[in-house]
Write a structure and sequence with these properties.
single chain, 201 residues, 15 strands, four-stranded antiparallel beta sheet, mainly beta
Length: 201
């Protein structure tokens, strides 16, 4: 019996959770950041080679200042490499910023800790969520959704919504058989997020 190891991505800081986009071969990674940025990364084609996300030379969409100032050859080579040598995050949020302007989610400490896809059709949430990707931040206690800008399209990082602004410190996201989003908190409690049009029961 031979054991085979395949790599689909490298230069991630802490790939905390990974999920596959339904109906595709895309791998999506919740990558917990360091001092400044959190990320959700997208591997478009895992069989086309190993995707380089640039850590520790890059954090979020910017050079990581500590490694940049150290002038390490590995980073200096990456900074001067042709465009496309490293892959930018699908979405990144700064520890001091808000992914959705004016939202109730706090700033400060952050940690990307979950990623899950909503069904493209037939789920119990409003149709605008069809095909959306949800992602969580344990430290901020928030869950966001990146909604497609076109029906059945790719989630759009410019089309973000705050989904839950006071979650119980989520450390994993999953969509259940009924199409509802579940999350696990650090204490091991599993919570289901239900949608009710009009008044809640």
């Amino acid at each position: 019996i031979a054991e085979e190891h395949l790599a689909l991505a490298r230069s991630l800081r802490n790939p905390y959770r990974i999920t596959m986009r339904p109906g595709t071969s895309e791998a999506w990674i919740s990558d917990t950041g360091w001092n400044t940025w959190e990320e959700v990364n997208r591997v478009v084609n895992p069989t086309a080679g190993v995707t380089n996300f640039g850590w520790p030379c890059w954090e979020g969409n910017a050079r990581q200042s500590g490694y940049d100032s150290a002038n390490l050859p590995v980073c200096e080579d990456l900074y001067t490499a042709p465009a496309g040598t490293h892959t930018a995050p699908f979405v990144a949020w700064n520890h001091a910023g808000k992914p959705v302007p004016g939202e109730a989610c706090p700033t400060g400490s952050s940690s990307s800790t979950g990623v899950a896809f909503y069904p493209t059709a037939g789920g119990p949430y409003p149709a605008a969520y069809n095909g959306a990707v949800f992602f969580a931040d344990y430290s901020r206690r928030c869950i966001w959704a990146s909604l497609p800008s076109t029906p059945a399209g790719l989630p759009d990082p410019a089309n973000l919504q705050t989904f839950v602004s006071d979650a119980a410190s989520p450390v994993d996201l999953e969509v259940g058989p009924g199409g509802e989003l579940y999350y696990v908190d650090l204490g091991g409690t599993i919570r289901r997020l239900r949608y009710f049009p009009g008044n809640q029961p």
